[in-house]
Design a protein that fits this description.
Blueprint (H helix, E strand, L loop, with lengths): L6 H14 L35 E2 L6 E4 L4 E8 L8 E5 L9 E3 L3 H10 L21 E9 L5 E5 L4 E3 L10 E3 L4 E3 L6 E3 L7 E2 L8 E2 L13 E3 L10 E8 L4
Parallel strand pairs: 4-5
Antiparallel strand pairs: 1-2, 2-3, 3-5, 3-15, 4-12, 6-7, 6-9, 6-15, 8-14, 9-13, 10-11
């Protein structure tokens, strides 16, 4: 199967999955098939708390919503790591929690579809051969919302939870919507969205990443560039809400 990153192809793919009941059960909503999203109004930072009751929920079983007006994709998860070097900022639950700060019980495939629905455009994953070419795509801001032990709400750009292992400063780079890829299982022929295996929001470059950094960042042992910014991260198990906001042309 030759995979295209165009919005039309992926939306058609989403609808085909819905029709045959493969992988997931997306909650149908007429707005998903409405007119093309208009450019987002700049509304950063996000509020300290977000009510999802008026948003479009993309799955009956997985906590993911979109707001087409604000151009947000909202995903719930929890803190799974507070120290150590990183390959991811966030991963799907049950995959790469040993090298990610946040885990989410949501498949990245759904997040990809949500980003398309709010107007983001996937580019291309990182290329290593014959030479390094960084990941490309719409820039995506990632915000984290959580509450402390006293119930006080907090928010921060995800970069504030990640620091450079050398400078000890917060990670300065933004993520781009690389878009991962789809392959067919050699035995079953089932289509597999590769980021579902763990490579959701990456800080090391992976050709399977859904969101990646547009700069060279090694995944090799002993050469990782980023680590958890422990002092900025709440306790493991703390519920968090991620808000993904594409940087769209005005």
């Amino acid at each position: 199967m030759v995979w295209s990153h165009s919005n039309t192809r992926l939306l058609a793919y989403c609808l085909s999955l819905l029709a045959v009941g493969e992988w997931l059960r997306i909650v149908p909503h007429p707005q998903l098939l409405g007119e093309e999203p208009k450019p987002a109004e700049t509304s950063i930072p996000v509020p300290l708390e977000i009510d999802t009751s008026g948003m479009i929920r993309l799955s009956r079983t997985e906590p993911i919503w979109i707001d087409r007006q604000k151009k947000w994709v909202v995903v719930d998860g929890e803190v799974c790591l507070r120290s150590g070097t990183l390959e991811m900022f966030a991963c799907p639950k049950g995959t790469k929690e040993h090298e990610s700060i946040v885990s989410v019980p949501v498949r990245p495939f759904l997040v990809h579809a949500g980003l398309l629905a709010v107007g983001a455009k996937p580019g291309k994953p990182v290329q290593f051969v014959p030479q390094y070419v960084p990941a490309s795509g719409t820039e995506i801001a990632v915000w984290v919302l959580w509450k402390d032990k006293e119930g006080k709400p907090h928010r921060a750009p995800a970069q504030q939870w990640i620091r450079d292992v050398r400078s000890k400063q917060p990670m300065p780079h933004a993520w781009v919507f690389a878009g991962s890829s789809v392959r067919r299982h050699p035995d079953t022929g089932q289509s597999i969205y590769q980021a579902d295996g763990g490579d959701f929001i990456c800080v090391s470059n992976f050709p399977t990443a859904m969101l990646d950094l547009p700069v060279e960042s090694s995944q090799a042992e002993g050469e990782l560039l980023f680590e958890a910014f422990t002092e900025h991260i709440p306790e493991v198990g703390t519920p968090v809400r991620l808000v993904l906001i594409p940087k769209l042309a005005q």
